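Repro:
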Amino acid sequence: MHSETAVAANAPVATKLPAARPPRPSTRPNGQWKIDGTEPLNGNEVWKQVDNGIAVRGRIEEIYSKQGFDSIDGTDLHGRFRWWGLYTQRKPGIDGGRTATLEPEELEDRYFMLRVRIDGGQLTTEQTRVIGEVSRDFGRDTADITDRQNVQLHWIQIEDMPEIWRRLEAVGLETTQACGDVPRVFLGSPVAGIAADELIDPTAAIQEIARKYLGTDEFANLPRKFKTAITGHPSQDVVHEINDIGLVAVDHPELGIGYDLWVGGALSTTPRFAERLGAFVAEDRVSEVWRGVTSIFRDYGYRRLRGKARLKFLLAEWGTEKFRRILEDEYLGYPLPDGPAAPRPKTQGDHIGVHKQKDGRFYIGVAPFVGRVSGQTLIRLADLLETYGSRRLRTTPHQKIVVLDVAEEHVEPLIAALDEIGLSARPSLFRRSTVACTGIEFCKLAIVETKQTATDAILELEQRLATIDAPHPITLHVNGCPNSCARIQAADIGLKGQLLPDGNGGSTPGFQVHLGGGLASVDREEAGLGRTVRGLKVTAENLTDYVERLVRRFLAARSADETFAQWAHRADEEELK
């Protein structure tokens, strides 16, 4: 693989991606509406045309919440419920070895995961408190901040959904299209409108897109999920390279500040980073350009095979030149100006620590353990912020929280108070940079446990590596299955969950290891995939030992200014085991 090619010690890592190939030429249509017509070519496309998911809320409120779980239509349960942020969660006690052998109804519990949609990650303390209260009252006090700025709750019962929606919507929150073949939550810079070094505030653009298109029929039936990321901050803090559409702030030498347009990113089992179209998007054109790209996906995306239905496969067939031409000629009706690429970030995009706002106050980025909080923690967080004069906070694409509008004299007292509820503004190396997906605790696709495994590793590494002097954060991403919700191919150390032989004829939870991946950041010029070494796997039990050994080898072997990713790509395979 290209990802195993060694690089010079101080050269930027620029791993080439394996092609996300379009479906092979066939006499059969691919289900592209503008080419093949709209006749459904698989079961999912049939039910989406019958009812695209928007209307299922009425049935939840009027039928299922009153008659209970057993009254739910199977297609609604396993399909349309997602349009309102609901998935059935995994039944406790089913081990990872049975994930691929049981039918969905055998894996699922009678409880739901509920995803609260938080566009741009923007929350008020009132909204935060309400999410916490919903968690406490209906979700057994569960709450996870996701790496897409949402909050996920668990143990939700269908009977409680009308009251949950009433509470959330009373404070301006929603679960609309939080899952499903729709435009998912819009990632936005967690420091939008407040950072002193911000180029442009994307908040109005995100709100316009949500107002015009969220919950409407126009984009309620896409070939697959569609992910958006928009940032006006030079740290490029919204992981735009792995979104279907990304807009990154740039300063055009003639046209001023606007956005650089990227399309076609996604990881999963066939990773492909988004590509620049070389087009400049002015601030007042963001909504219509977003609509154009999303419409291309709706009209030309492959619908016959769901495994080939993401936008990245269409981009692989067309290339950026054709994609831009179709966008301009068929959907916009005008050419977009050519534009420059954004420069390499100069600051970390996780926003951890204390930073000055443009108004002279401060924002503070804090880290829970791999996004896991609780309803009670969210309630206490809201209370704390109000005590210290703040009423705003943000979630981040790195499973972190940023609190805003803190007066200088309140910074240190608030940091101490936040630390007492498990939110650290000065986290350890791995607490800062570890991300974990939901894992086997709740997810029907997972093979291994993730959240507690990652937390235990962090706590142990904090002790073992307390005295080291790392040159930069080393990202550790832990995923419970091959689908890469935790972005394993784009981490310094990425772990893909699988079962490994235990030496006694059985199996034990473990991970395949990816090394040296990452997105554009202070430490690397551009995105690149992690390296895989044949046979390099680690059991969950030995995870901490392995990470400690790897970090110490890196620190001992690195040359001046060499990053972990650069070292991982040049090191001999034996050094990485």
